[in-house]
Structures are given as C-alpha cells and as structure tokens.
Amino acid sequence: MTDEPEPEAQSPTPHDEAKDMTSQLSGFYRLDLDDRRARVAAIAGLSPTEIDALSADAGLSDQQANRMVENVLGVLGLPLGVCVNLRVNGRDCLVPMATEEPSVVAAVSNMARLTRRSGGLDADADPSIMIGQVQLCAPSDPEGAVAALEAALPELHAVAASVHPRLVARGGGVRGLRVRRVDYDEPGFPAEAMVVVEVLLDCVDAMGANMINTVAEHLAPHVEAITGERVGLRILSNLASHRLARARCRIPAEHLASEGMSGDEVAEGIANAWRFAWADPWRAATHNKGVMNGIDAVVLATGNDWRAVEAGAHAFAARSGRYAPLSIWRRDGRTLVGRIELPLALGTVGGTLRVHPGARLALDMLGVESASDLAAAAAAVGLASNLAAVRALATDGIQRGHMALHARSVALAAGAVGAQVERVAAMIVEAREITVEGARRALTAMDLSARQPADAAE
Ligand code: MEV
What we know:
alpha+beta, Alpha-Beta Plaits, four-stranded antiparallel beta sheet, 16 helices, 17% strand, globular, disordered C terminus, binds (R)-mevalonate
C-alpha cells in the first residue's frame, strides 16, 4: 500500500562461522593500529578489504556523505574503538564503539574483563515494537471520540496492517492499537482535552522510525472519518517503552578489591553511589551519563539514531515522575548485583546502514543476529560503562584514569609521534604535569637523553 522501502531481510554475517570466537585480548591496546585491525579481522572473520572500511578515508566518502544529508561540506571523523573481553549470555563479542571521549573504551573493556571472571553479563531485549501516535486536537466530544475509536479498533488494525504487508512474513507487523485520553492542564492556561490513538508495530530488525511514521500517517484520515474531529500530530514516540533492553551481572566482592580497599568496601561504595543517584536527580543525570557513554558509542558505531536513544532513555528514567538512575547496584551478601533496563530502538538493517560502509562493518564485527541482539549487547555495554564510572568514583576518583588517558592526547598535541606518545604520556603523568608545555619539555628531555651517548663519544 505504500512506496515506503521496507528493510531487507538480514543476510548471514561473516560471524555465523565465528560463533566460538574469543573477545579476551589482553594487551590489545599495546598493538599498533594495523595489528589491531588484523587481529580483529581474523577473529571476526572479516577480510582485509572489509576491515579497511574502518580507516579514516574509507569509512564514509564525501560522495556517500553527500547523499546522506543536505548542504554537505565534508565528513567529521570520530575514533572507532573496540571493546574487548566482553562476554554476554555466555558468548564472547567484540563491540564497536565510536566516541571522542578518552577512557570510555578502556573502561568498558576493563569492566568486561572484571565481569567475565564471574561468567560475564546476561542481557536480553524485547521485540522491536515501536509506538506511533495519532493525536486528535481538542475534540469537541472527547468521550464520544474515545468510544467511536474503540469501537473501530478492528478497522484501524486492518488499515495499519495493510501499510507494510511484507513485514508479517519477516516476523513483524501490527501488535495492537489503543486509545488514550490525554489532558493538557498546565496551570495558568485554558485546559484542553486530547485523544490519542496509539499503534504498536513490530519492526523486526529495522529501527523502524520511517515504518511507524508511515503507519501513523495512513491511520490519520481514518481517525478523522471515524470521529469527525481534526487530527493534529502523526508521529512515533521515542519513549519506546515496548522495546526495552536489559542487562545484569553478579560480581563477587573479592573481584572488586582495589589498591588499599577491600572488595566489600568497593562494593559498598558502588551501592552508595547508586543510592545517591536514586535519591538525587542531579547525581542521577551524571550516573546516567556514565551509562550512555557506553551505549551511545555502540549506537553511533552501528549507524543508529543516538538522539532517539537518548530521548527514550531519559524519558524512561523519569517515568515515575522523578528522574532516576537507569541502572541499579545493590549488595547481596558478599556479591555486588547490577542491572539495567531502558528503551533501545536500534536497527541492524535499513537507515544509515544502507549507505555507511563503516557502520555496516562495525555491525559485522559485532556479529549480532537481530536488532534485539544488538540492543541486548548495547545494554550490557551500558551497564559495564556505568560500573567503570561508579567503581572509579568509589575508589581512586575519576581523574586518575582520565588524566592518564588524556595525557596521550596532550603528548600528541605537543608533537609526539609513534612510540614517543606512550613515553611522553607516562612522563607527564609521573611528573603530574599533564599540559602541552609539560609534554614539550618531556619531548626535549627524551631527545637530549637519546643524543647523550653520541655527544659523549665526540
Ligand atoms: C564521565 O564521562 C562520566 C561520569 O561522570 C559518570 C559518573 O559520574 O557516574 C564519570
């Protein structure tokens, strides 16, 4: 009934042959860039040509970018890293992460290593159900409109189902419709009743924004005809409350022990950080930022819509009427128990993935079978990223690790190249002088000491 392109069926990925791969790659960060690419390609069953799609000039060409959005001038690069060591549902996975923030990939990889000592994380996600809303603006008879629409639900269901006829064969389709009365009653302004028809559509492996918006637009004239009232908005809701992803982990306290602190003390510190976030929205916002550091990086790397994910996550965090943490950390005897739940509308077909070779490659590297698997992996990364933050806050504080990684960018900014970068970074951390000036001095000192034997021989 519509020209709306439906997502193609998912083709088997190179990962289908690499299910028993390992993500446990100790010292991976010490390899140089080419060796890292070669290692990941070998593990994930990707060819050297495929992995080349990750290099800066191959990720997205000007021409490809020019077809994606308007008024294109160029392409903005972001580092694409890989989270190693992660084990989700008993399976190792290499998770692509695109982020500009130093320490996020390292932190998640470290927590992946920590959690794998007790079996890794468990994660799951709902089917890919999107919500579309059709709004009746200020109907003259709201109760009459609700009654008429409820009586016509089978007709509306048939209209919605006719929009993407091939979706059912792929396991998706309309999952229900409901009618709600919504009251605008902002103090100081005239009250207004609204009626909303909501349609639930399982979009299978697509993120589904275009699909659900098309359904909402097709329903609108029918909603007007049934009620005799005027339709206003016809659009999806980013609060994808039927598309939740969850992750969990249990960590024996002794695995958390840190310099000068017992595992139980660290577990208590993490539980305290969670209670603070529960009690205070200012802290909850920062707690959730630590979650989204991990999730956004996966969303971005796999070509998904991070604004949609952010909007859904924060609306979900405020669903009780008070903004709250997306994850929970509690002690259960001598075990730290963590879990997270949030809406994750992610696709593995269609959208950006049609045109972005780097995003397609990232998805192949992860080797997920479905959009729900991708959402489950992203939830696991979100929980690990949050754990890294609250563990650091409960122990050393966040700056020590951050500054150590920041030191590398400072070394680069001061002109260090190759092996100099790590050495200069170590020197300025040691000297507690993580500034470009400090890095220049370190470079000069290195240069002098390298020349010394020759000078002495002269
Ligand atoms: C920094 O990007 C994220 C943190 O602030 C999160 C947190 O405070 O939990 C470290």
